Amino acid sequence: MSKVSALYPGSFDPPTNGHLDLIERGARIFEELVVGILRNSEKIPMFSLAERLEMLKTLTAHLKNVRIESFHGLMVEYAKSIHATCVLRGIRAVSDYEYELQMALMNRKLEPTLETVFMMPADKYSYVSSRLVREVAQAGGPVKGLVPEVVEQKLREKLEPAYRFHDEMQKASPGASGSRGTTRKGKKKI
Ligand code: PNS
């Protein structure tokens, strides 16, 4: 049987533990796995393409059959250019299915020889998404366990003021966001 190369496309803004889990699973079943980061000129990402490439290269350095690249334009055309015969996508919950099905069928229409393969990340990551990680981090909240440590560090560097504000608020009023009956200055709410 010939070698099966797969493409795992996505935005990875930022890469999460769910992405990494899927990359590791993919690397075990495909001979070669290319992680393709979409260069999307329509969206302003939190992390530049260079930052995402660097983070993913660091995170997958131990996986010898994984390569990190970027692409723009149609995913199916990029897949063809790198001789990938499969597209790997993750499905966390039923809610992902509808969008993923639509995308897989559109991609099949565009390129009938390209197969989409769905894999499930570990259930402990079933609620983890880049969007929610960004939202939590932008409010200075903890993302430990949701993203790899290098990503956590990068988020802290990038969102330093938000984390500083959050930490100061926590110090002034531990564990509070109003729910324990205290104001920002620690005074009892009346
Ligand atoms: O991480 P994401 O944002 O869910 O990944 C979506 C991605 C990059 C896989 C998808 O938007 C994509 O393939 N974009 C490239 C343009 C394209 O081929 N569009 C047609 C998809 S049906």
User: Stretches where pLDDT falls below 50 for ≥5 residues?
Assistant: 178-190
Q: Got a strand count?
A: 5
Major β-sheet strand ordering: 3-2-1-4-5
Global geometry: elongated
Bound molecules: 4'-phosphopantetheine
Q: Provide the residue-averaged pLDDT.
A: 91
Bin the strand percentage. 15-25%
How much helicity do the residues have? 40-55%
- SSE-based structural type: alpha/beta
Measured on Cα atoms, how large is the radius of gyration?
Answer: 20 Å
First-residue to last-residue Cα separation: 73 Å
Total helical elements: 7
- N-to-C series of helices and strands: EHEHEHEHEHHH
The main β sheet shows up as:
5 strands, parallel
Task: Describe the protein's topology.
Elements: E1 5-10, H1 17-29, E2 32-38, H2 49-59, E3 66-71, H3 75-81, E4 86-90, H4 94-110, E5 115-119, H5 130-138, H6 149-158, H7 160-172
Parallel strand pairs: 1-2, 1-4, 2-3, 4-5
The structure holds 4'-phosphopantetheine (PNS).
